[in-house]
Amino acid sequence: NPFALDVFMNMLFYSTGKELPSDIVKVHTVRQGLINYEEAKSWVLSVVDFADRFGANTGRIYDEIAGADGVRAEARDVYVRQEYDEALSLVEEARSSLDQIAEHALKLKDRALMWTYIIEWLAVLATLMISGQVVYAVMIQRRLYRGVTSTRSI
User: Fold this and answer.
1) pLDDT in the model for residue 98
2) What's the pLDDT tens digit per position in 85-137?
3) Taking the chain, what is the end-to-end CA distance rounded to the nearest angstrom?
4) Is the Cα dihedral 67, 73, 74, 79 positive or negative?
5) Residue 23: left (phi > 0), alpha (psi -120 to 50), or beta?
6) pTM for the predicted model, two decimal places
7) 3-class secondary structure for 81-149?
8) What residues contact residue 14 under an 8 Å CB cut-off, 6+ apart?
9) Cα separation, 47 vs 151, whole angstroms
């Protein structure tokens, strides 16, 4: 049940005498946004770590992630204070900035792997050219072909 935590939280609020949230869907959306942010951040960090292994300069991306984390922390604080409208806007802001960071991280990964791609294609091209020369020499020119002669005269 995706709303089980919401039901439990409402039971806690009710039993402690606190005011229940008026829009439970918004509360659920904010909570899911906070969870989804952490999952997306994990993915971005894995892409950045992969690019870092190929020598990419990842310092700027880590600074951008720290900025997005600051917005996410503020959204969490606002969520705890039960200001759900502001928390929702902050979560959406943090997520959109994380999406931009993800695009930047993918471009960085592609630039870091550019030389790997170039070397790979050069190896494939060299193999194609060498095998083409061998096929041309053996089958078309027949330069390496010698007819079979008999070893015994009849």
Assistant:
1) 95
2) 999 999 999 999 999 999 999 999 999 899 889 999 999 999 999 999 988 88
3) 93
4) positive
5) beta
6) 0.72
7) CCCHHHHHHHHHHHHHHHHHHHHHHHHHHHHHCHHHHHHHHHHHHHHHHHHHHHHHHHHHCCCCCCCCC
8) 20
9) 67
